[in-house]
Amino acid sequence: MRSGQLVMAGACLIIAMAGIGLADDDRAFEFALKNYETAKNTADKKMAKLFDVVAGQIRANRNLPPETRNRHIIEIQDQKELFLKYNQLPESDVMLPGTIAYLNCVYGKSASLQRQFGGALERAVGDRAEFHRISVMKENVQSTLPGRSSFGMNTRWHGNRTFMDGRVVDFHVHITRGENNSFEGEIWQNVQITNAKLGWAFEGKLDGNAIELVTTKTLYGKTPPLDLRGFVVGHRLVFAVCANGNPVNDFISVVKK
Fold first, then answer.
1. Helix ranges (DSSP H) in the chain
2. How many C-beta neighbours within 10 Å does residue 56 have?
3. What is the DSSP annotation of 23-72?
4. Smallest Cα–Cα separation from 107: which of 229, 17, 213?
5. Distance CA 90, CA 239 (A)
6. pTM, 2 dp
7. In 3-state terms, what secondary structure has residue 247?
8. How far apart are CA 68 and CA 52, in angstroms?
9. Exposure pattern of 172-196 as b/e (b: 16+ CB <10 Å)?
10. Domain 149-256: assigned CATH number
């Protein structure tokens, strides 16, 4: 969704709230929405510039053959065009650090807005129509965060876990069932090596583009709980790993299959 569309969505959101018994909270919603809009516009501009920065770095890297540099630069130019036209985040490895920085910025600034929605939903509990309408509004705002459209129930994501010592193992995430932004599923690691295979069941939640998986039990192997926190980036999920509740320097990237 473009910035102009976001402004229109915000205006429609505020107008609609006056008609659902939330007039006393309109100012707080409007303030949170404007802050979110400003943060996203700023992040959009930084992201647009980053494409050119990365392309310049690749162009100057004479350790790569001209054919390789040319291919990467064209890929970045195509991704920039998609971002500017459709707000589609780049999924390539070379742009991934910038993409994660973008999502951290936008998600962090949306926290106030999400709290406002949480309060409105709490007040609407038990009123089916009110709760539904507020939920739809929340989803409309969250949809302005690029990248989450590919996420869904009964989806499978395959990729790798990279350990801090450089080891890389195959990694799989299966989203099974859920409702709204809460879901369940399974994680499998090293499935190609029987004596090293590990599996966990998890409960997850999605907040904007932010995704969190908390393991509920071990399905296979002897291993401590594995909790993941990260983002939906188009057809990719990227996670930082938490073991026993503590972050470790492992990185997971899986692609939707």
1. 3-18, 26-60, 66-86, 96-109, 111-124, 128-142
2. 12
3. GGGHHHHHHHHHHHHHHHHHHHHHHHHHHHHHHHHHHH-TTS-HHHHHHH
4. 229
5. 16
6. 0.65
7. strand
8. 17
9. bbebeebeebebbbbbbbbbeeeee
10. 2.40.128.120
Name the residue among 192, 252, 195 with its Cα closest to residue 226. 252
Indicate the pLDDT class of residue 240, thresholds 50, 70 and 90. confident
How far apart, in whole angstroms, are the C-alpha atoms of residue 200 and residue 186? 6
Question: Taking each helix axis from N to C terminus, what angle separates 66-86 and 26-60, rounded to the nearest 10 degrees?
Answer: 160
Rg over alpha carbons for the chain, rounded to the nearest Å, is: 20
Note whether 151 and 232 are within 8 A (CB). Answer: yes
Q: What whole-number distance in Å separates Cα of residue 4 and Cα of residue 24?
A: 27
How far apart (Å, rounded) are the C-alpha atoms in residues 213 and 151?
14
Q: Which two tokens stand for residue 91?
A: 């999924």
| Cα 184 from Cα 86, distance rounded (Å) | 30
The 10s digit of each residue's pLDDT in 15-62 is: 344 444 444 555 776 777 788 888 888 989 999 999 999 999 999 999
**78-84 own/partner pairs: CB under 8 Å, 24+ apart:** 79/51, 80/48, 80/51, 80/52, 83/47, 83/48, 83/51, 83/146, 84/48
Domain boundaries, the chain: 3-145, 149-256
